[in-house]
Design goal:
alpha/beta; Rossmann fold; 8-stranded mixed beta sheet; 13 helices; 39% helix; disordered N terminus
């Protein structure tokens, strides 16, 4: 408790000041769609949610690529990869419940298997039976859980700084700490200093100088989507590091593991844990990149993906 007291006190003081200076109400999804959901965005009804989806590339592709974002991110995190994939591949990405424009679900259940089942339900709605799936952070956990729950449907697996095995972060964005702290997490539903969002994004980049104002705007505004801040708190309270990690060793799908060497949230040692657990998996580490390497440097990180997709099974 003594270790936590200084940062808790500092954050509490910051939030008390922020309440007076930077109150931010939830924003209706309709107020955000013009900027963040232009074509080819669509909304697909799944489990009583209007799910924000982008489905691009040739419709006759027999093996679509499904990309799943991480905590507090959105489908936009994959923009760079999609630009390099959509000419040859059908690429499907979406905002998970509780994030982006999809917003919170009615059940308040944001556990890993729930997300994996939701992903399968969305793909059923889109008529996709077999696919490649990749994900970053939470999205990586959703990806391997999907492969575990429906192995007959997953052709290949791509894990980008993925959650799964138990780990100790070296640095956690202040916003994530707030979401797991009683009292503070409820205060945060009423206020959101833009500077706090900027700190969180810079914290997960290997080179914080790459974080642009437009990028901060995206994370900031989509966090304000009605219900997302409350959902983040629920997700954080439900998260158990290492839960079901023993399943990873049972995966038999061809797997590519990508990791940022400067990831301080899920350290690079976890990449080695995944590689040791998944027989025949490939590992590529990008020494200068952080927790979201696909977003920080899309061109560099996509190269091994293209080689992996082209290789015979």
């Amino acid at each position: 408790m003594r270790r936590l007291a200084p940062w808790v006190a500092a954050i509490l003081l910051m939030l008390v000041v922020a309440l007076g200076l930077s109150h931010e109400a939830d924003r209706p999804v309709q107020s955000l769609t013009a900027r963040w959901a232009p074509p080819p965005s669509t909304f697909v009804d799944v489990d009583a949610l209007a799910v924000h989806v982008r489905d691009e590339g040739p419709r006759d592709d027999p093996l679509p690529i499904v990309l799943v974002h991480g905590t507090s991110a959105s489908l936009h995190t994959w923009d760079g990869w999609v630009a390099g994939l959509r000419d040859q591949h059908r690429v499907i990405r979406f905002d998970l419940p509780g994030f982006g424009l999809t917003g919170p679900n009615a059940s308040g259940d944001y556990r890993g298997d729930t997300y994996a089942r939701f992903t399968l339900a969305l793909l059923d709605k889109l008529g996709v039976q077999r696919f490649v799936i990749g994900g970053n952070s939470l999205g990586g956990e959703v990806a391997w859980r999907t492969a575990y729950l429906a192995p007959q449907r997953v052709e290949r697996l791509i894990l980008v700084d993925a959650g799964g095995p138990a780990f100790e972060p070296r640095s956690v964005p202040i916003g994530f700490r707030i979401a797991t702290t009683p009292v503070l997490n409820h205060l945060a539903e009423w206020t959101l200093p833009r500077a706090l969002v900027a700190q969180g994004v810079r914290n997960v980049y290997g080179d914080p100088a790459k974080v642009s104002d437009e990028l901060i705007d995206r994370y900031f505004e989509l966090t304000l989507r009605e219900g997302n801040r409350a959902a983040l708190g629920q997700r954080m309270r439900q998260m158990v590091r290492g839960e079901d990690a023993e399943r990873i060793a049972t995966l038999k799908v061809p797997t590519l593991i990508l990791w940022g060497g400067r990831d301080r949230l899920i350290p690079p040692e976890i990449a080695e844990t995944f590689k040791a657990a998944i027989a025949g998996s490939q590992l590529v580490i990008f020494p200068e990149l952080g927790h979201v390497p696909h977003e920080e440097d899309p061109a560099q990180t996509l190269r091994p993906v293209l080689a992996f997709l082209a290789a015979p099974l």
